[in-house]
Specification:
single chain, MerR family transcriptional regulator, glutamine synthetase repressor, 2 strands, 138 residues, DNA-binding, 2 domains, mainly alpha, 7 helices, Multidrug-efflux Transporter Regulator, Chain: A, Domain 2, 67% helix
Length: 138
DNA sequence: TTTCTGACA
DNA sequence: TGTCAGTA
């Protein structure tokens, strides 16, 4: 089983997650209601959180402590998800280029390198700074 | 016993 | 956000 799958595996009840994140069960349920997290449910309708969910909630907790409101947190989480997807897309393209490089002509190689250079300016955009976050503060 | 939803402050 | 009621 892959590591990614382990992180997405539904394991913990809300009491454990509450301890892990230092958030109250009330808060965690509220954040779920606001679609900030999406824990799976057990047969008895009990919430089951994965490592991924816990990471997310810890991130939420950090932003709450910094005074970011829910709308802002939603934006930040969306950006973080996009970054994850972009990183995976980048890895994917790097992986593919390894195979393609075997029998590329010089011209094709130049085109590939040029494309990667252009893309890197977009993929390596700096992480969120204080300025970007400031508009989410009260 | 623990967790769930809904409701009130 | 905390807390209480009534359930499952």
């Amino acid at each position: 089983m892959e590591y990614k799958d382990r992180k997405a595996m539904p394991l913990f009840p809300i009491s454990i997650v509450s301890e892990l994140t230092e958030l109250s069960a009330r808060q965690i349920r509220y954040y779920e209601e606001k679609n900030l997290v999406a824990p799976l449910r057990s047969e008895g309708n009990r919430r089951l959180f994965s490592f991924y969910d816990v990471d997310r909630l810890i991130e939420i907790k950090r932003l709450i402590d910094e005074g970011v409101n829910l709308a802002g947190i939603k934006q930040v989480l969306k950006l973080r998800e996009n970054q994850v997807q972009e990183n995976e897309a980048k890895k994917q393209s790097e992986e593919e280029s390894k195979h393609y490089k075997k029998d590329l002509t010089d011209k094709e190689l130049h085109q590939l390198l040029r494309r990667e250079l252009l893309e890197s300016g977009y993929l390596n955009k700096p992480s969120i700074n204080q300025g970007d976050l400031s508009r989410f503060y009260h």
